Amino acid sequence: MALLLCCSVCSALCFIYTAYYLFKKVRRPRIYGKKTGSFYKHILAHCPSLSRKYWPTWWAINAHVITIGRLALQRPPSGLTYKREIFNVSDGGSLALDWADPEVHSIKDDSPILLILTGLTSSSKVVYVQWLVSDGLSEGYRPVVMSFRGLGGLLLKTPRAYCANTDDLEPVLKYIHSSWPNVPVVGIGISIGGIILVQHLRERGRDSGLAGVATVSSSWDAHVTLFETLEKPLNWLFYNRHLTKLLVNYINKNCKHLMEKGAMTKEQGEELMQKAKKCSTIREFDEAITVPAFGYDSLWEYYENGTNGNKLHQVKTPLLSINAENDPFVPEKVLPIDGFCANDDAVLVVPSHGGHIGFLEGMLPTRGTWMNKVLREFLNAIKLYDKNK
Known about the structure:
By secondary structure, the protein is α/β, with parallel strands linked by helices. The chain is about 45% helix and about 10% strand.
């Protein structure tokens, strides 16, 4: 009798869970854009995954599980090889440009270039970035990962680090265009990388130097993300605390290096490390370190500069953005739906599930995700898109 009761309860729970999964989580993504616009129509015609239901991994239907699950389970693509180039910036700093090795991957001379900007502390070594490179190769691109200063195995050469601005992106783009003057360049930005790319589109208007841009899990309101969302208890515990520790470690490692090289005095280095040590959130880190280092008058000014949602009307380059409804970094309330619907050149894709750079699918999601599927279709679509038609 007890066994029968137990089986009945388990069956009922399985039925309820299955119904919840099928009716609440398995959905077509919501798509926002100017429906009469050529780019909106082109994306729908050439990105079939957007017209189909997204089936997230059935056991990863919580935002935190799907976000952390990708970190734990995803494995890198096989056979990927980079050729590193050190790019020297005019102020004396440097950063790494990691190109997919053209000899190993048989890249054609006239292949379009895919410029990848990563998340806050990522580099070309991170698994999700390697899958983006693999996506680019599969669609006939020449992928290159731009690591921020002091990341990707490099140490800072000057006290200037990096933040959510376009200061380093601009010279890198100019260099790429001077090296391949007749080749289109497409950008993909993840999280902060997407923020920087959209900033660039805003600042440059029709003269962005990019044929198209895709962003994934990028914030549209830095004030809300960093003052509210990431300081909620669970989000602080799972993400904010960890990312802040990585930033503090970044400061410590690079300050010690700069002091050894004589590029920073002992007093300057120790003062900076002490300030960083007191930070327990990204907001505190930005206020103590980023704002004074980059000459902002206030934290509000820095975050307003990194807020793109209220400035979408300035974007004149084809833009596809993916943000999950349940992203623990980017709440649904800050998605600039009206801005996308009023813009001829921008499309927003909002799946019901996906977390932050999660988007797992399949029983054992160790390879590329739903995000990668959509981005491959986007890369193909951009090659076929003529904005002037």
